[in-house]
Amino acid sequence: MGxxxxxxxxxxxxxxxxxxxxxxLAQTPxxxxxxxxxxxxxxxxxxxxxxxxxIGLRAQRNGAxxxxxxxxxxxxxxxxxxxxxxxxxxxxxxxxxxxxELITARVRALPGQRIRLLARASPLAGPAGGVPASRLQWSxxxxxxxxxxxxxxxxxxxxxxxxPSDLIHGWTRSGAVTCEITFSLTGTGHLPAGLYTxxxxxxxxxE
Length: 207
Description:
The protein is α+β, with helices and mostly antiparallel strands and 207 residues long.
């Protein structure tokens, strides 16, 4: 067996080639005019094999491996849409038209990017017809913030017609945030009692 060296067994790898060359030369006749024509191709084959071995060993000794990893931005959001069913009781308890949802966003962003959790509310359908989205408000509370997203805060505010609203403020690093968001109607004193339905579409954006 060949002796190991500092190049990870290159000497052992060369033994099959050496054995092939020795066998080829041993089987070639060594005298006679006709033997020269037979021996010449064998010598050429030996030279080619030796050159191949030299190139292979040099490539293994001088070669280097470079590993390049690219981590792409990524985002997961649950749920993607909230279906609202707000029950407005008759006076004197009209304030009960509210609904609470848990929203979790997990984002891997590039350094320096701002992370936004956006919500867009559609107009509501009520007992007396349509109600504009501007009559809907939300109040948020941070339930959990994992990894480096601890500076993110679930906020409160109201919706504008056709415009997205930021549910989270101050989110600048990758991580996961869970918010408890309570949606409710405003100005209920001027609305008839009954069921009000609508949807809030959610999305994550980095910029």
